[in-house]
Write the structure tokens for this entry.
Amino acid sequence: MIYDSIPSQLALGNYKFRLSKAVNKKITSKDEKLLYDPIDSKTVLICYNITKPSIALNLTRNLKQFKLYLADIGLFTTMLFNDKRIISENIYNKLLSDKLEANLGYLYENVLAQIIKTSNRELYYHLWYEKDKSRPYEIDFLVSDNNKIIPIEVKSSNINNHKSIDVFSIKYSSCISRRILFSQKDIGNKEMLEFKPIYLAPIIINNLN
């Protein structure tokens, strides 16, 4: 139940993984222990919220606020589009040709999580509220680069909407080296924000120090 709930929780845009929604009941200590079985088996990737972004990302991770991703993007795709686990070839064809009528931001987000993790890095994101704002700002991923950090956003569409990374870049300008938005679009830039196609993510992430 925990494993199966991961794609749906990401698709709903939850700001953290909710164990109670996965098991569909009030959680117990046994449920909390079971949560770490898929994490320890490395079939699930855990991404912690960082409360105070800095080069020492691990120092301010919130152990009670995290997201979960699947370590296998193929299984993730199958779980998204077919309840019977038998996915049609037509779905894959539409997905690869960018003709699938669905918001795939959470799918690309899981892709990035897998890429970052396979580059021997831990996964971190940042969530924060500004005064008089009912909804939080969120940076999908934070990675280190020498003595700086890089905020990363992932979009499937509407790449012109990047308020979170803009606000974050002003707030933490002193500790940022670059800012990157990955999508299926072509290479580009807007002031200091770099737009990169998602297929370049493995090269970009692996070339960071």
User: Anything to note?
Assistant: Residues 164 and 194 are 14 Å apart (CA to CA). Residues 2-206 form one domain.
